Amino acid sequence: MFYWVQYLADWLIYSVLGVSAQSHLGEALNFFVFDTLKIFLLLFLITTIMGIVNSYFPVEQVRNFLSRNKMHGFEYLFASSFGVITPFCSCSSVPLFIGFVKGGIPLGITFAYLITAPLVNEVAIAIFAGAFGFKVTAIYVATGIVLGILGGFTLGKLKLEKHLSPWVQGIIAGAQTEEVLLKEKHTLLQRFPGILREAFTIVKGVSVYIVIGIGVGAAMHGFLPTGFFEQYINKGQWYAVPFAVIMGVPMYSNAAGVIPVVQVLVAKGVPLGTAIAFMMGVIGLSLPEALLLKKVMNVKLIAIYFGTIAFFMILSGYLFNSIF
Question: In terms of Cα–Cα distance, which of 28, 67, 276 is closest to 157?
Answer without folding.
Answer: 67
